[in-house]
């Protein structure tokens, strides 16, 4: 097999990159180790930044999103018996976010790729990347018992934190930064009416909670739990009871509950790999960086990586400018670190760290620092604007 860009991973970042490249006439093949059904079974993010919404429209896959997704002009922070609304559109000059599940984004991209007749190899095993520092890299994998070689010009590693792409970069070349948090999020998905028209981030003495949604009839809720907890420790009734204790009283009093469709516990971590490029291989999304979900940045940072690589590849194949590929890591990492910092900041402010010392500060002192931080940024318009600008997403950087 031969292609121009080999994409490793058929999650939303790989599929979006493939769709955008195909729109420019750039041939690409996606190689995925699991089945398409498995990919669609992943329950993930649901808040899309303005930049990602615009990118999906540019890719020609926004019809269902624009019809079924919900535009949100604000988000609430609840703490100390206060509820502060961050008016996103008013504070950013009109930018908003779109509530539309990652599963639905992935489904739309899969359908578009199938309709366009583009090649995706699912259930490919033993995927390996070769000669990525040369002008003739290639990928090998096994499919249906056969060894396959895929020759290409460039490789996009969109295969997640545990994928092979990042492991291809030698240890002496890369630097990995990591912060692991001492708690996780227990998430529950249910076919119930959302308890509020906008997301509510709650900081309480019992721990963090988030009231989110996927549609007008499907809700997504989270509560902070110790890392020692297991999903089977939490019945649906126990979850709903604890969630109501953490939500504002008036919201809890009227919220609709029901059986869970899915429950899972996600550990929280901050992670960045530098650089995000090795020769003609580029890391995209979770392969290069992980954020705690508090800032709704994971999928959105992946989209900004895709936007950067798409612009670079377009210039390479349309203008013959191969030197521009060296800008990829530098451009991506600037935005990644902004997203990492915002997610870290929101996580620190909104969660209860218990008795754990944080950054060399005892827990009680750290808690008072974060309480002051929340009050400072929410009590004045300039502070709320700082939150809003980052929540809707910083602008994508152009290629020089």
UniProtKB/TrEMBL annotation:
Pfam families given in the database record: FAD_binding_3
Keywords, sorted A to Z: FAD, Flavoprotein, Monooxygenase, Oxidoreductase
UniProt GO MF annotations: 4-hydroxybenzoate 3-monooxygenase activity; FAD binding
SUPFAM superfamilies, alphabetized: FAD-linked reductases, C-terminal domain, FAD/NAD(P)-binding domain
InterPro entries: FAD-bd (IPR002938), FAD/NAD-bd_sf (IPR036188), HB_mOase (IPR012733), RIFMO-like (IPR050641)
Class of enzymatic activity (EC top level): oxidoreductase
Keyword Flavoprotein set for record: yes
EC number, UniProt record: 1.14.13.2
Domain FAD-binding: 2-342
A Gene Ontology BP annotation from the UniProt entry: benzoate catabolic process
Protein name per its UniProtKB record: 4-hydroxybenzoate 3-monooxygenase
Protein source organism: Marinomonas fungiae
């Amino acid at each position: 097999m031969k292609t121009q860009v080999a994409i490793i991973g058929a999650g939303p970042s790989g599929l979006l990159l493939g769709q955008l490249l195909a729109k420019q006439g750039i041939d690409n093949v996606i190689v995925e180790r699991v089945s398409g059904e498995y990919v669609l079974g992943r329950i993930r993010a649901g808040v899309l930044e303005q930049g990602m919404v615009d990118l999906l429209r540019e890719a020609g896959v926004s019809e269902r999103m624009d019809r079924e997704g919900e535009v949100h002009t604000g988000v609430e922070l609840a703490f100390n018996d206060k509820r502060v609304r961050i008016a996103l559109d008013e504070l950013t000059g009109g930018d908003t976010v779109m509530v539309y599940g990652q599963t639905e984004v992935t489904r739309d991209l899969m359908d578009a790729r199938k309709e366009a007749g583009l090649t995706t190899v699912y259930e490919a095993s033993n995927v390996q990347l070769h000669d990525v520092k040369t002008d003739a890299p290639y990928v090998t994998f096994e499919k249906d018992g056969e060894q396959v070689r895929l020759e290409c010009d460039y490789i996009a590693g969109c295969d997640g934190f545990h994928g092979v792409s990042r492991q291809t970069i030698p240890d002496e070349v890369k630097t990995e930064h990591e912060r692991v948090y001492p708690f996780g999020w227990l998430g529950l998905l249910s076919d119930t009416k959302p308890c509020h028209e906008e997301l509510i981030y709650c900081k309480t003495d019992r721990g963090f909670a988030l009231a989110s949604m996927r549609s007008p009839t499907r809700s997504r809720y989270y509560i902070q739990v110790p890392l020692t907890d297991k999903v089977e420790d939490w019945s649906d009734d126990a979850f709903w009871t604890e969630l109501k204790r953490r939500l504002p009283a008036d919201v809890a009093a009227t919220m609709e509950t029901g059986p869970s469709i899915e429950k899972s516990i996600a550990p929280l971590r901050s992670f960045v790999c530098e650089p995000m490029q090795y020769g003609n291989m580029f890391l995209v999304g979770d392969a290069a960086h992980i954020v705690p979900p508090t800032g709704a940045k994971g999928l959105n940072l992946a989209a900004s990586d895709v936007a950067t690589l798409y612009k670079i590849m377009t210039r390479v194949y349309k203008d013959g400018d191969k030197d521009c590929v060296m800008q990829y890591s530098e451009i991506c990492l600037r935005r990644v670190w902004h997203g990492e910092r915002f997610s870290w900041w929101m996580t620190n402010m909104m969660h209860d760290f218990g008795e754990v010392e944080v950054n060399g500060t005892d827990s009680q002192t750290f808690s008072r620092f974060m309480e002051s931080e929340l009050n400072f940024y929410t009590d004045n318009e300039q502070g709320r604007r700082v939150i809003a600008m980052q929540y809707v997403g910083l602008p994508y950087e152009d290629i020089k």
